[in-house]
Every structure is written in C-alpha cells, then in structure tokens.
Amino acid sequence: LFLVSLASADILVAVLVLPFSLANEVMGYWYFGGLWCSLYLALDVLLCTASIGHLCAISLDRYWAVTRATRLNLRRSPGRVKGMIGAVWAAAALVALPPLLRAQPGGQECQLSQETWYVLASCAASFFAPCLVMVAVYCRIYHLTARRTAALLNVHSPCPASAAKKGPGVGMLGWRRRSQHQSMSLCRQRLVRARERRFTVVLAVVMGAFVLCWFPFFF
After folding, report:
1. How many helices (H) and strands (E) does the chain have?
2. What is the pLDDT of residues 98-157, one digit of tens each?
3. N or C: which end of the chain has fewer CB within 10 A?
4. CATH number for the 1-154 domain, one of 1.20.200.10, 1.20.1070.10, 3.40.640.10, 1.10.10.10?
C-alpha cells in the first residue's frame, strides 16, 4: 500500500507537472492560463510533498517493525496503513493550499509565492522536517541492528577447547568436532556481517539518493 501510493504520487508528477514545466522552460513563458497555473503549482507542491512524506512514513514503519515487531504485527491492518497514507496526503494538501488559493494573473509568468513565510514554511514541511526524521530513524535502526548482530555473534561464539585429553582416539574426535564447530561459527559470523554490510549499503543508497535529489532544490 505504501509503495503503490508513493508510485502514484511520482507518476502523477511525471504526467501532470513535468510536461508543463518543460514547456514553460522551452517557450520561456507560461502559455496555459492563470487557472491552470494555480492548479499546476498546487499539484507540484502537493505531489512532491506527498512523495517525500511517503518515504518518511515508510521509514517510521520500518522503525516500528524493528522496535515493536510483536505489537506492530498485532495492530497492523490495511485500515491502519491507509490511515497513515491519508495523513501523508492531508499534510501535503495543507502545504499545497496557498498556491491554490492565491489567484494567478493571466500573464506570462507562473511561479510559486516568493513570500518569506511561505518559502520557509513549505521547505521545512516538505523536506527538512521529513529529512531529519528519516536520518534519525535510519540511524536508530542501524544502531539497533548492529547491537543485535553483536549479541547474535556472542551467543554463537565457539566454546573454548578443553585442555584435557582422554586418549588419542577421543582427542582426535574432539579436535575434529571443535574444528567443525569453529568453521560453522566462522561461516555464521561472515554471513551475519555480510548481511549487516548489505543493510548499511542499502540505507546509505536510500538516504544518499534522497538527499542528493532534493537538497539542492530546497536549499
């Protein structure tokens, strides 16, 4: 549900916003009238804010899945997830309301309000606040995962070998068992560490792509 709603927001940006932005850039003036200018600006803010809001909601859902797995599985339902998605769209609509209410003249320019209060409020609500939440949440998820990985490795660490030998045959058998146990433990440690590295890379790619794509514009 989260991914379908996120994809819908992104597809609508590509269909309803980007073609008119491209036409405006190529022609050098706004051709489509004052009414569509207001709708276009509102849709631009609404859909971009909703897209970022979905990423933030997904990060919170992942955090709760890590920290409250049992309770979350009992409480999670399609209705609850739809409520979170509805809250994301409602918050995005509030941010997009001023461009819709602000009448656009029928001239050749179509741009968002340059008033300081709206620029600061919309940038904070659309990007900087969700970005801080995502960074904090994913850092917390990483620390929890690293701590659990360390605990798992300690639990499965090989037992110290006994110094006593009861005979050549028993000693050789015990040595083989200890060797197999140590090999299995080493393999398990490598798998756990590889999984942790993979998880770290995924988080770095997600957050890095998010910040690189959006930070220059909002800055």
Report:
1. 8, 0
2. 777 765 655 677 777 777 888 888 888 888 998 899 888 888 887 887 777 777 666 655
3. C
4. 1.20.1070.10
